[in-house]
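Q: what sequence does this backbone want?
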């Protein structure tokens, strides 16, 4: 079994409300649980940044499904790597949006607003890892 982690960012087709995000997370958590996939999603200023971890074929298939979703476009893979163990395994899909901690972490990496296309692969992963300890309940 090959475990992988895929991190991508995308642009929401329109501003997402909390209930829009909730419907994405509800389906994500149910499906990911069945597929043994875990991860972390963040959203702000119409950008999504998401990490998916799990068995290679399951992650690849899910990514293709997600990439087809009309709720976002400009989907760009930031990193794809083989991992020994998942980092986000406490969450079928964790979530964090704008918060004081979110802004503090961005500032730490020299960003005044959420622009995942300006993050290096290392920064994007560290950002999601740090956010996973500071999640919003959605
Ligand atoms: C930003 C974003 C992240 C998503 N993340 C997941 C996810 O982690 N797991 C998942 O099953 N679906 C996720 N979805 C939803 C899928 O795109 C798709 O709607 C869902 O898998 C249901 O697909 P189906 O209708 O083919 O069963 C996400 C959608 C968006 C827009």
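A:
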């Amino acid at each position: 079994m090959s475990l992988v982690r895929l991190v991508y960012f995308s642009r929401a087709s329109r501003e997402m409300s909390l209930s829009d995000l909730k419907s994405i997370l509800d389906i994500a958590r149910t499906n990911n649980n069945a597929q043994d996939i875990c991860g972390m999603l963040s959203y702000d200023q119409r950008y999504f940044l998401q990490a998916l971890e799990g068995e290679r074929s399951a992650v690849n298939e899910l990514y293709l499904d997600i990439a087809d979703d009309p709720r976002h476009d400009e989907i760009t893979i930031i990193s794809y790597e083989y991992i020994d163990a998942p980092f986000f395994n406490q969450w079928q899909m964790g979530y964090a949006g704008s918060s004081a901690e979110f802004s503090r972490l961005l500032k730490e990496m020299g960003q005044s607003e959420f622009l995942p296309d300006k993050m290096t692969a290392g920064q994007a992963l560290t950002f999601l890892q740090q956010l996973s300890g500071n999640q919003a309940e959605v």
